[in-house]
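Sample 3 of the quickstart, ligand phosphoric acid mono(formamide)ester:
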Amino acid sequence: MRHLVSLNDFTGDEIRHMLEESIRLKKLRRENALAPLPGKPCLALIFEKSSMRTRVSFDVAIHDLGGYSIYLSRQDINLGSRESFKDAALVLSRYVNCVAARTFEQNTVEELARYSDVPVINALSDMYHPCQALADILTALERFGTLKGVKLAFIGDGNNVARSLAVICAKLGMDYAIASPDGYELDEPSLKLAKSYAAKSGSRIEQVRAPGDAASGARVLYTDTWVSMGQEKETEKRLKDFKGYCIDSALLKAAAPDAIVMHCLPAHRGLEITDEVMDGPQSVVLDEAENRLHAQRAVLKLLLSDWRS
Ligand code: CP
Ligand code: NVA
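Result:
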């Protein structure tokens, strides 16, 4: 049995397999020819934080596979406080076939996985957002037909989304550069880990200061909120510190001519991205959002059946 707590646990070949499976299932869904999984699988959706895309796409994905979901908010189960992660995981494993968990701390999703007898999927934590990264790279693959040597530039906070993108790019041989203000870089251990994957795949991972330096030569220009969920108290300071880290038309011009613009959403128009870029011809934010569904359907299918079948 496999869990998806982060993409660190998967090889480049396994990630490529997830992407290929996403493309295959996306085509089958369009032809209305998806085969349901046996046994009407039940997916528990544990969400400690708000969500629109992740919650809806997991719900639709499990229905597509002939299963159904049960949504459990923080209020419902009070994870780690009403009872231990261990007890919650052991009990849930008796009821459901898979768990997707959006948690404040990465440790929570790891503890659930440690004790769960069914696959656990990270639906976003403070450290990682692996399902988002899969959908993003699926979008790049569809656009460019290849990933090797494609450069992704992340402009902004060295956060959960930036970290998952560093992992996936490094494992798949994509170049990755992140431009962040002082104090908001990717943490050193994550950077070191990504660089170790990149050494094997032949790609380049860089942390830089100036957005233009990251954007130079990039075919994917990416940004995310400056204030992630759980950081609301830092809003005023962050809005000041991130000034100049906005994807606008001038920055887009510094990227490759065929560059696409990504944002995991929800976006704060006028802060990390301008309306003009977000609604412009190079923006693929809606394809990315749609691909959450296709990537997660593949993840569910792979984790709920024999990995290679
Ligand atoms: N991108 C993303 O995960 O969106 P939600 O927070 O709405 O799920
Ligand atoms: N970095 C953001 C991503 C939201 C999908 C957050 O954690 O709030």
